[in-house]
Every structure is written in C-alpha cells, then in structure tokens.
Amino acid sequence: MAIKDKISWGILGCGDVAEVKSGPAFQKCENSQLLAVMRRNSAKAEDFAMRHEVPLWYDDADELLQNKDINAVYIATPPASHLEYTLKTIKAGKDIYLEKPMTRTADEAQQILNALAKSKVKLTVAHYRRKLSAFLKVKELLKNDSIGNVRFAKIEILQPLKSDIIAKTEENWRVEPELSGGGYFYDLAPHQLDLMAHFFGPVESMHGFSKNQAADYDAADIVNGVVSFKNGVQLQGLWCFNVAEKDKKDQCIIYGSEGTITFSFYGGEVILDSNNKKEIFHFDQIPHVQQPLIQATVAYFLGNAENPCPAEAGLTVMKMLERLSGF
After folding, report:
1. Residue 33's CB: how many other CB atoms inside 10 A?
2. Taking CA 6 as the corner, what is the angle to CA 9 and CA 125, rounded to the nearest 5 degrees?
C-alpha cells in the first residue's frame, strides 16, 4: 500500500454542522484537502460545494465512496445513519472521522469496533473539545496537581426548551430518539462525558435516571446521573432542558483537596481557585471549532501521531449515555 502524504476528504452529510464548525477546516488544515461532499438533496449538495469551493458533489453515498481519489471520509449525518455509513466506509478501505454521538446505541458502536478490528481502517471520533485550548488548560491544571487530589466533579447543563447552545437545523431530529438516540442529552452530553473520561480515565460504575417532564417532544428532557471512575474520582451530572431562561447554566466544577477548577463547556474561561492562588484564564473562540482535532486526525491518518480520540472512547461515551439515562 502506498504511503499517503495528504488526506483527501469526502464528507457524507454537508448540513449545518459541516457549514462552519467542521467543513471549512478540512481545507485549512495542513496536508489536507476536501475533494467531495454528499447530501441526499442534490441541489443542497451542489450549493455547499459551490460556496465552499469543493470540486465534487454527490447525492449518493456509494458514489462518493467509490471515488479512488478520496482516502478519508467525514461522516456528519444524524446518528441514525452512522452505523450504515461507517460500515460501508470501512468496507471501502477509507479512514473515518465520525461525528458524535458515535452511534445511537452502545451496541451499534460495538459493531463498528468489531468491523474495525477486521480491517486496516483508522477511525477518530469527533469529540473535538479535547483539542480546544480551554480544555487543554483544564487537563494541564489537573496533571500539575493544581487543586491537589481530585475528589469529584459536578456538571450542570440547565437550558430552556429553546436553547441557544443547541445547533439549529431544518428538521429538529435531535429530539427524535429513532434518529438521534435520545434527545438533547445525546446531542450535548457526549462532549461533557468524553472530557470527564479523558480527564479521569476508565469508568468503574455508573447509574442514572431520565424523564420527559415538559412533554414538548418524545425524548427525555432531564437526566440525572452519577459516575465512579476507577481512580476514585466521582462525577455528578444534571442535564435539564426545560428550565426558565433566567436559570440556564453551563458549568463544570472539579473539586480537589486544595481547591477547584471551574469552567463552561461553551464559554472561554477557566477559573483556578486553590489554597494558594486564584487565576482566571481566558480563551478566544476560534472560527472552526473542530479544526484542532481535525488537524490531529490528519496527523494520525498519515502515521505521524497517535489517535486523538479512538473508537473505544466513543463506545465508552455511548455506554455512559445509556446508563445515565437509566437504560
């Protein structure tokens, strides 16, 4: 097999997420180029391609996968089609950058891991916050024992029924469990849960409850759970999507023996408050938030770096989503 010197991408699903958060980054990253996009609506696929200067567009995934010039695929469709498209892409022998949540269920995620084990295909899950400066700072502070021995973390994601941190789409598939897996919790919590596992390591046990309180859609709108990590750190998490506008909150506090680290998942501030000092670190929003992880993924696909977010991490998150939902 010839050694790749550049990653030539195709995108399956060039909708709202690919418009700003990720799509342009494939052209801006070093050793990377975006050759083709696919959307079932041909006119919308062509419109995306023309606006973003992408040479090719398709309305059929199989046609894109047959293009021999494409050696990696970004799967950015709703989770309902992740398993199908991932298995097809593995069969086509192309590396994969897979949007989160990895799948709708842990069983589907395990099927992907089984298929990867029988192939030479590389796969990275798009938990892009791992590579953003604010969360790299949190990981650095933890590594340096800035708050002593970590005791527990507390996540509170409290949002009104109409939240500005949830991506707007033509159809609100996120609240249809058969398409998304389980409502806004399945859309937003993967970012938070992946960071917790990234910070604290393997999970020992977990338990949770979910409920549809407001009955505004079919999926659960509140999830309350606890996680115990093997290193002794514990996590309390509350995700509620039916509170008053004035009560909305996006916060994580990590408590240690000598202080706390407080941060927002959607803001740009990290606060260290220890026995010795209090510091506030500010981070600017970058235009395409997935670009740092995509660049790390390109390096991995080229054989120059480790996998920044392997499939096993995606499976861990899927198990956490299910157990915290009470499944």
Report:
1. 15
2. 50
d(CA 145, CA 155) in angstroms, rounded, equals: 20
Bond from prior residue into 177 cis (ω within 30 degrees of 0): no
**Sole residue written with tokens 């510091």:** 279
pTM of model > 0.85: yes
The sign of the torsion formed by the CA atoms of 160, 165, 167, 168 equals: positive
Q: What is the CA radius of gyration of the chain?
A: 20
Q: What is the residue type of 278?
A: K
Give CA separation, 215 vs 29, 156, 190, 220, 241, in Å.
43, 21, 23, 9, 11
* 191 and 197 Cβ atoms separated by less than 8 Å: no
Q: Each residue of 222-263: pLDDT tens digit?
A: 999 999 999 999 999 999 999 999 999 999 999 999 999 999
Token pair for residue 113?
């891991």
Domain shared by 90 and 157, yes or no: no
- Same domain flag for 162 and 90: no
172 and 33 inside one domain: no
